[in-house]
Amino acid sequence: MKGQPHSKQRTRLAMATLSHLPLALLILAACCVLALASGGGQWKLLKRSIGISAMHMALLPNNRVIMFDRTDFGPSNVSLPNGRCRKDRHDRALQTDCWAHSVELNWVTHGVRPLTILTDTWCSSGALAPDGHLIQTGGSNDGERVVRTFSPCATCDWAELPDGLAMPRWYASNQILPDGRIIVVGGRGQFNYEFVPKTDPSEHSMYPLEFLSETRDDCENNLYPFLHLLPDGTLFLFANTKAISLDYITHRVVRTFPALPGESRNYPSTGSSTMLPLILAVNSTQPVDAEVLVCGGAPSHSNFQANKGVFLPASRTCGRIKATDESPEWSIETMPLKRVMGDMVMLPTGEILIINGAGKGTAGWGVGRDPVLCPVLYKPDAPIGHRFEVLSPSSTPRLYHSSAQLLSDGRVLVGGSNPNRGYNFSGVLFPTELSLEFFSPPYIKLKWSRPKITSLKPGRTMSYTQHFYINFYSRKQSTKGVDEILVTMVAPSFTTHSVSMNQRLLVLRVMGLEGGHDGAYRVECVPPVSAVLAPPGYYLLFLVHGGSPSRGVWVRLGKD
Ligand SMILES: *[C@@H]1O[C@H](CO)[C@@H](O)[C@H](O)[C@H]1NC(C)=O
Ligand SMILES: *[C@@H]1O[C@H](CO)[C@@H](O)[C@H](O)[C@H]1NC(C)=O
User: Fold this and answer.
1) Ligand 2 centre from 421 Cα, in Å?
2) Which residue range or ranges hold the Galactose oxidase-like Early set domain (predicted)?
3) Where are the domains of the chain?
């Protein structure tokens, strides 16, 4: 077996993602109009109304997207299924409520199916379990300790487990772990974490975490902490301006990283974060590097000022740190546009889309201003100064309570935005948005030249040890051989409040590109070698040929 050295793998990622570089030069003026002229991506309305505002979004392995907002929000624009109503005399909005607050979207047919949630899911968290069930945790009011599950099937609906959590979790974050459990961290007033699902329903352990009280400031800028499972098995945790890594097995903080200079980065000074693509190494003894990127946010007192009518400019910076270094330092990069409440979406090419949000103010009711309509592409392997590219603008502001999600065809689903106390469509600065849009990143315009995966052998259930082969068809002439090929696996995320929980992208080691006659190719791939690198469960597998990604194929990575 021929191996590729690690650095060459990096170079290949750079080559495969640099195809849009010349555009970056145009963008120095940071002006959307220029980007529009240069055709950087395309917007398309999917549906004017899905009946609710897509505050939380999760993509399931059957390609449906589950969305929900909150139950104590008053009348939505879609009724609960089967003539159901919720009766709750403590509900703030409607004591008898026959409106749905969750839907399932089929983005191929544009069909929307209302779902039943009975307890409040406001500002909650979730994760796709290894078996493909969606697990949602917490919320507010009567839903703060509820765990809800949803199975992907055409007639399935939510099941709710009261007292599923040890503590109330409102604004908490989740991360799936190598053993398939989910860690749920923080939440308003909760300086601790716990695990779900519980092995025993009477098990209500929780573990204190001082870091969460230390990072709390006057505006509580440490909610919805950013979590990333590092290749050494510890959990990287970022809140406000600080970061640690936690050994969640022994419950010890194992490292304290330097503070990120500048603004606050977490809710309500909401920035966003992603771990950069994990480039998998030649063998299991070679360490895998992990870099974390944190972008946007707002000055620490911004929420306080905004509530008094003073809307401070959002952060313009990103911090990037190699969390696996011996003495890591943040390097600071400047975005072309200021942004608070941006979403970061990992694309199949290993690039990162920064989308949605505002140029001033913070998260919260009525406190965001200057919607940032232009997404920005971040190319992690381009030289500094050429990493950002401004893309074409949407016409719909997506502020507080908006979200975005990568779809299996490589487009990005964008929805939500409700900076109002209820559904409010008139007499407000930014009306509640019930619409959904598709954003096609620049690679979609290369439609004719997109490669197509024709078969995956030995199959769609993958082990951590067995090499597999991808047969694909591509009209692109291959001149650089295997160096032009990337095989990436993207873990689907649960997205809300600019946090894409569990988002993770692996760049697999590929070798032995064969064929090319009549555009038919075959490539050999090495799976991720451990559950620490890639927790078990569903992933979207993409083949990228010369910067152009195939449609994603769902695979399930399991224990051997
Ligand atoms: C609510 O739904 C009706 C159709 O069911 C539609 O005509 C109306 O425009 C929708 N309202 C909003 C604000 O989307
Ligand atoms: C919408 O907001 C406006 C302005 O704050 C307020 O006067 C109105 O009552 C709100 N409507 C609803 C339906 O909440």
Assistant:
1) 8
2) 450-556
3) 7-444, 447-557
pLDDT at residue 421, as a whole number: 93
* Per CATH, domain 447-557 is 3.40.50.150: no
∠ CA 412-370-417 to the nearest 5 degrees? 45
Residue 559: the pLDDT is 62
Indicate if ligand 2 lies below 6 Å from the C-beta of 427. Answer: yes
Q: For 387-405, what is each residue's pLDDT tens digit? A: 999 999 999 999 999 999 9
Three-class SS of residue 429? coil
| 358 Cα distance to chain centroid | 18
SS3 annotation, 321-336:
EECCCCCCCEEEEECC
Q: Report CA torsion sign: 198, 116, 496, 65.
A: positive
Exposed, middle or buried, 287 (CB in 10 Å: 0-12/13-18/19+)?
exposed
Indicate if ligand 1 lies below 6 Å from the C-beta of 425: yes
Q: What is the pLDDT of residue 175?
A: 98
Q: Which residue has the tokens 């009766």?
A: 87
Query: Is-same-fold flag (7-444; 447-557)?
Result: no
Dist. CA 114–CA 157, nearest whole Å: 9
Residue partners of 542: CB distance under 8 A and separation at least 6:
348, 410, 486, 487, 488, 489, 490, 549, 550, 551, 552, 553
Q: What is the DSSP letter of 483?
A: G
Contacts 24+ apart (CB under 8 A), 313-317: 313/338, 313/359, 313/360, 314/263, 314/338, 314/339, 314/340, 314/357, 314/358, 314/359, 314/360, 314/361, 315/262, 315/263, 315/265, 315/271, 315/339, 315/340, 317/262, 317/263
Report the pLDDT value the prediction gives residue 480, as an integer from 0 to 100. 81
User: What are residue 389's phi and psi, to 5 degrees?
Assistant: -140, 125
Q: Is 434 in the pocket of ligand 1 (CB under 6 A)?
A: yes
Q: How far is the CA of 427 from the centre of ligand 2 (A)?
A: 7
Whether the CB of 78 sits within 6 Å of ligand 1: no
- Which tokens go with 345? 């979406």
Q: Which CATH number fits domain 7-444: 3.10.310.20, 2.130.10.80, 2.60.40.2310, 3.40.50.11600?
A: 2.130.10.80
